[in-house]
Amino acid sequence: MRLRSILGTAGTLTGALVLAGTAALVPTQAVVPDGSDTSTAEASYDVLVFTKTAGFRHGSIPKGIAAVRQLGAAHGFTVTATEDAGVFNDADLADYEAVLWLSTTGDVLDAGQQDAFERYIRAGGGYVGVHAASDTEYDWPWYGGLVGAYFNGHPAQQTATIKVNGGSNPATAGLPRRWVRFDEWYNFRNYSEGSVRVLARLDESSYDAGRTAMGDHHPIAWCHPYDGGRAFYTGLGHTDASYSEPEFLDHLLGGIQQVAGVAKFNCGQD
């Protein structure tokens, strides 16, 4: 709830800004919307998982929600999952250290909700985008900058090799340097080359990247500071199986922890 001291009801900075990074670790118990218990010994921060779709809806979304809840229970954060865009207001967003957009698609926020999310990030909030989060809000350039790219097609699902960079980053530190796995591999447009730290690239020689192939420099996961906040995006996570894969869950956990401010945000430019 660190941001509650920063965001007022009108989204303005208050004198409590100095409290932004000093939230105490307070034992807590969270009850998620389906009634399951995600209690932990020390729930140190709060994550909102947002799953609204206005286009294609991924069947893996329920598996993703369950996986994030399990990560929260094991690693000390509470999880709230919602498809209700109404939570994008100053008061509600202030309860969360990170907002995770889980395979959202299409135009999911209205203008006022967009403004509230911009204020949240500018006040130091954290953003995690998973898979189709890049297939979202094409008419909102600020959001495209936050993600770092927009979706530009994909080939058939297949096995590919990921070239993992940034071993000191929490999202990649535990991964093999050549990570072979099965997923749906996104190609991107409007990619913010030079303004993000690329954490992993696809080796296009290891699979058929399709007609929108990106060539030798094909990012698939990255992070960057953005407009006062912290952002992490991974193109992985289309399949149900992703959310029971230990390596992918470590990757996702590292992204959550660093944008929430509980792990080092090692995301300077390449």
Tally of domains: 1
Structural class: alpha/beta
CATH architecture: 3-Layer(aba) Sandwich
CATH first level: Alpha Beta
For this entry, give a set of tags.
alpha/beta, 270 residues, two-stranded antiparallel sheet, Rossmann fold
Map the helices and strands.
Layout: E1 26-28, E2 40-43, E3 45-50, H1 61-75, E4 77-82, H2 90-93, E5 98-102, H3 111-122, E6 126-130, H4 141-147, E7 150-151, E8 158-164, E9 178-183, E10 188-189, E11 197-203, E12 219-226, E13 229-234, H5 246-260
Parallel strand pairs: 3-4, 3-5, 5-6, 6-13
Antiparallel strand pairs: 1-2, 7-10, 8-9, 8-11, 11-12, 12-13
What does this structure look like?
This protein is α/β, with parallel strands linked by helices and 270 residues long. The chain has a single domain (2-260), classed as Class I glutamine amidotransferase (GATase) domain (Rossmann fold, 3-Layer(aba) Sandwich), CATH 3.40.50. It is built from five helices and 13 strands. The chain has helices spanning 61-75, 90-93, 111-122, 141-147, 246-260, and strands at residues 26-28, 40-43, 45-50, 77-82, 98-102, 126-130, 150-151, 158-164, 178-183, 188-189, 197-203, 219-226, 229-234. The strands form three sheets. Strands 4-3-5-6-13-12-11-8-9 form a nine-stranded mixed sheet. The protein has a two-stranded antiparallel sheet with strand order 1-2. Helix 1 (61-75) links the parallel strand 3 (45-50) and strand 4. It is globular, with a radius of gyration of 17 Å. The model is unreliable at 9-42 (pLDDT under 50). Keywords: Signal. This is ThuA domain-containing protein. Residues 1-20 form the signal peptide. InterPro entries: Class_I_gatase-like, ThuA-like. It comes from Nocardioides donggukensis.
